Amino acid sequence: MLRRRNRNALLQKIGFFLFVLLLLWLIGRSLPALFRADAPAEAAAAAEQFYKYEQTGDFGSSWELFHPLMKERFPKSAYVQNRAHIFMQHFGVQTFELEMEPPEREFDVEIIQGVKPFPEAYRIKVTQTYSGTFGQFDLVQTCYLVQDGKEWTLLWYYPEQQGKQDKASSA
User: Fold this and answer.
1) pLDDT tens for each residue of 106-126
2) Are the CB atoms for 120 and 146 separated by under 8 Å?
3) ∠ CA(155), CA(157), CA(159), 5° rounding?
4) Known InterPro entries for this protein (predicted)?
5) 125-69-36-101 Cα dihedral, nearest 10 degrees
């Protein structure tokens, strides 16, 4: 009889200890979110700065706000040259109007196929309205902002292409 009471007391102590650990873990996971209430505004400001540079044709400065994965995809000189060539020379535009939707927080986001998902990112839909040689047109693009160190950096969305090709070939 005495052993059963000791065993129950031990199980209660272990249960209480596990409950306290779970509670501490939950607090530890949610506490940083309370101090990051300004994260959506900071992410949106970084995206806005990126596109302000693009509006003025300062593609070198906008490139600096890319995430390192984007910088790998587009070397700076090639990016600056191609952006200026395509938009200014081919389309005959000098600038564009910009509209951005509010940022939406997402978790475990695979932004570029084959790259490890980002634990947290802010998705922003950006619409650039151009007026140029071929009339007025809108370029709608989904971009993501993630923190690289303490800085917010921008990535363009590269969804899985295989699924789209399969659907197109079966239609």
Assistant:
1) 999 999 888 899 999 999 999
2) yes
3) 145
4) NTF2-like_dom_sf
5) -10
For the purposes of burial, counting CB atoms within 10 Å of the CB of 171, is it exposed (0-12), middle (13-18) or buried (19 or more)? exposed
Q: Is the pLDDT of residue 7 over 80?
A: no
Beta carbons within 8 Å of 144's beta carbon, 6+ residues apart = 106, 109, 111, 118, 121, 122, 123, 124, 154, 155, 156, 157
Q: Which of 54, 58, 72 is nearest to 130 (CA)?
A: 54
Note whether 153 and 146 are within 8 A (CB). Answer: yes
Q: What is the mean pLDDT of residues 50-59?
A: 93
CA atoms within 13 A on the CB side of 45: 8
Both tokens assigned to 2: 């005495």
